[in-house]
Automatic annotation (TrEMBL):
The keyword Protein transport applies. Belongs to the ATG7 family. GO terms for biological process: autophagosome assembly; autophagy of mitochondrion; cellular response to nitrogen starvation; piecemeal microautophagy of the nucleus; protein modification by small protein conjugation; protein transport. The keyword Amino-acid biosynthesis does not apply. Gene3D superfamilies: NAD(P)-binding Rossmann-like Domain (3.40.50.720). One of its GO terms (cellular component) is phagophore assembly site. Residues 2-254 form the THIF-type NAD/FAD binding fold domain. It comes from Geodia barretti. It comes from the Eukaryota. One of its GO terms (molecular function) is Atg8 activating enzyme activity. The lineage of its organism: Eukaryota, Metazoa, Porifera, Demospongiae, Heteroscleromorpha. PROSITE patterns: PROKAR_LIPOPROTEIN (PS51257). This is Ubiquitin-like modifier-activating enzyme ATG7. Keywords: Autophagy, Protein transport, Transport.
Length: 355
């Protein structure tokens, strides 16, 4: 590829990148295989579930044999399969949970200790890897990794699926306090084109509500991601290709967003455009490339959240897990709701006066 098509392609930058995949399900399997295809050799998978009989037809690293005797742990089974595909891969499996807002830990000492251990496991993995992929099923499971990748200045690639839609994005890069980024600070063009990498939003920046338990009061079939089978392969491939294109840019994680699909001649990556988000609609076989700026009231990556986490550590996280409105009160979203309600009251009052 480098010799015949792209002489400037830096394959060493790809192969030396250590990737952490959070979720070893449909997306995790496809991303792992695509990373191996690009020559990535350091891959760690984290998951806490087992392989069920419905998994192998959709999750490309599992076979029917992995379902027997109650099912193997997904991360372990995926790593075993990766080693069979290429014995030279340095793949590791971690069987662990990710504590989530809306899923209360409670006050039981044993439960708190388990949550603390899970947080320490995830944080250590984030610190020891270069890139983190968020490939889980629920919105709230992405909150802690989003916070940790922001706090430790790691590249974060996020992929999420709907029935016939998908979203792939790179989170904005959050440099350590006091660090000069050197990234351009001018936003040019339309549709979010040219937003510097350290000013891009994360998965939660476009929300005005804190993450909560999205599986509560849902039947088992509603708790699973139901999607067209090809969606995960498309999204998994795009997530991998987005990372590789980002690694080829001179600014790496600080690369500004590209949104114009007509002409990629101005991109500084030898592989072309580096968008902030890729949102796909399989029913129309269409992709759009929106971009958005970081939200100063974001519940995951805003300065106030990162500052409190650095000051309080696990105690801060425990409040977020156990207290429903804690993050909204902390970031000012609760005040934003109140101000919005006041505006609506004033509008109604004006209308009554006119009558």
């Amino acid at each position: 590829m480098r010799w015949r098509l792209i002489p400037s392609l830096d394959l060493e930058a790809v192969s030396s990148t250590k990737c952490l995949l959070l979720g070893a399900g449909t997306l995790g399997c496809n991303v792992a295989r695509c990373l191996m295809g690009w020559g990535v050799r350091h891959i760690t998978l984290l998951d806490n579930s087992t392989v069920s009989y419905s998994n192998p037809v959709r999750q490309s690293l599992f076979t029917f044999h992995d379902c027997s005797s109650g099912g193997k742990h997904k991360a372990k089974a995926a790593v075993e399969s990766m080693r069979l595909i290429f014995p030279g891969v340095k793949a590791e499996a971690v069987d662990s949970s990710i504590p989530m807002p809306g899923h209360s830990v409670g006050t039981n000492a044993e439960a708190i200790q388990k949550a603390r251990k899970d947080v320490e496991t995830v944080e250590k993995l984030v610190q020891t890897h270069d890139v983190v992929f968020l490939l889980m099923d629920t919105r709230e499971s992405r909150w802690l990794p989003t916070l940790l990748t922001s706090a430790h200045s790691k590249i974060c690639i996020n992929a999420a699926l709907g029935f016939d839609t998908y979203m792939v994005m790179r989170h904005g890069f959050r440099p350590q306090p006091g660090t000069e980024t050197g990234s351009p600070g001018v936003i040019v063009g339309g549709c979010g084109s040219g937003i510097p990498g350290d000013q891009l939003g994360c998965y939660f920046c476009s929300d005005v509500v804190a993450p909560t338990d999205s599986t509560r009061d849902r039947t088992l079939d509603q708790q699973c991601t139901v999607s067209r089978p090809g969606i995960s392969m498309v999204a998994g491939a795009l997530a991998t290709e987005l990372l590789v294109s980002l690694l080829q840019h001179p600014l790496k994680a600080l690369a500004p967003s590209d949104s114009h699909t007509e002409d990629d001649s101005e991109s500084e990556s030898c592989l072309g455009l580096i968008p902030h988000q890729i949102r796909g609609f399989m029913s129309r076989f269409q992709n759009v490339l929106p971009a958005s700026q970081a939200f100063d009231k974001c519940t995951a990556c805003s300065p106030v959240v990162l500052s409190r986490y650095r000051e309080e550590g696990f105690d801060f996280l425990l409040k977020a897990f156990n207290t429903p409105n804690f993050l909204e009160d902390l970031t000012g979203l609760s005040q934003l709701y109140a101000e919005t309600d006041d505006d609506q009251v004033w509008e109604l009052s004006d209308g009554e006066d006119d009558m």
